[in-house]
Amino acid sequence: MPDFSIGVDLGGTNLRIAAVSGEGELLEKLTFGSQGAPSRDQVIDQMCEAIQLLSGKYKPAGKFLGAGIGIPGIVDLQTGMLRKSANLPGWEEYPVRAEIERRLGARVVLENDANVAALGEQWLGAARGIENMAVVTLGTGIGGGIVLGGKIWHGMNGMAGEFGHVTIERDGHPCGCGSRGCAEQYASASAIVRMAREAIASGDAPSLAKAASSDAAFSAELIYKLAIQGDEHARRIFCSFGRALGVLLAGMVNVLNLEMFVLGGGVSTAWDAYAPDMFEELRERSLVYAATAPPDPLRNGALEKKGASPHTANRRERTTTITRALLGSDAGLYGAARGAMLAG
Ligand SMILES: [Zn+2]
């Protein structure tokens, strides 16, 4: 009978809770929507009830190894409080971990969502079997997590891995964090839409202007569709995105010299539109990457089948692999469960 833990993925729109065995088998998953915009206390109630339900159900079969919770925002590891969260208004400076522990009568692990997603990909996803790796999540913004020796690298108090706010343009576009020229201003879904709107405003991207006026949801996905259909302006935006991501990755590869960098998040799926420029930039800018690049780097991200093993081959050759995430939105759920196992 399997020992198990509970992983929680608290997103801006969904609350998902899963019982996962020590071998990484999903035993059961519960999903709650955010209809009616539940308050913070209602969400915590719902979460604690679901954790108790699942742990009670599987306890007769195996040992309960604890609960791990991935939460969007900067988590202070010492206090278990949320320092900053764009997606959870009203949760900041609130003792989230202490409150959940009080209700459950048990210790829980509270982590930043990108950190648990990195741990999930390392445990069961693209970097399975690779001890040292990082995940860069390309969504509305950019998130990230670093795993060293099979464990999340937290930095001093849990704030490590803020890849989105690494400066890649000294006098660049202002960022919500207060700085300028941050990576997420150039290589995120919101950056793609902003660049498209800038091109439209300049008057020389009529195809984008037409798409924007005929589709109320003018999104990065729509611009990607135009790019793969060959639209020149849309293609240029993804080239620029790939270049920016290449600059960010070059810095990370030079500093960390990890075996694998996994690109996750919604925009990472536009791989064919941005990856060639990303690799070109990376090779030009990083001496470490140039010395450790695999012979056909584009192939790694094109492989989507689980069980495909380009990484295993690369590892033997000690190369730097840049590839796409495999677990999608489940990475955080598995990673949160794994975090509880490692802490237990
Ligand atoms: Zn920033």
Task: Summarize this structure as a short list of keywords or feature phrases.
344 residues, alpha/beta, Nucleotidyltransferase, domain 5, 2 domains, five-stranded mixed beta sheet, 12 helices, 19% strand, globular, binds zinc ion
Structure characterization notes:
With 344 residues, the protein is α/β, with parallel strands linked by helices. It folds into two domains: 4-121 and 336-343, ATPase, nucleotide binding domain (Nucleotidyltransferase, domain 5), CATH 3.30.420; 128-326, 2-Layer Sandwich (Nucleotidyltransferase, domain 5). The protein is 42% helix and 19% strand. The strands form three sheets. A five-stranded mixed sheet has the order 3-2-1-4-7, with helices on both faces. It has a five-stranded mixed sheet with strand order 10-9-8-11-12. A two-stranded antiparallel sheet has the order 5-6. A hairpin with a 2-residue loop joins strand 9 (142-148) and strand 10 (151-152). Helix 4 (189-201) crosses helix 5 (206-214) and helix 7 (232-256) packs across helix 8 (271-285). The chain is globular. The two termini are 18 Å apart. Residues 304-308 have low confidence and may be disordered. The structure holds zinc ion. Residues 165, 175, 177, 179, 182 line the site of zinc ion.
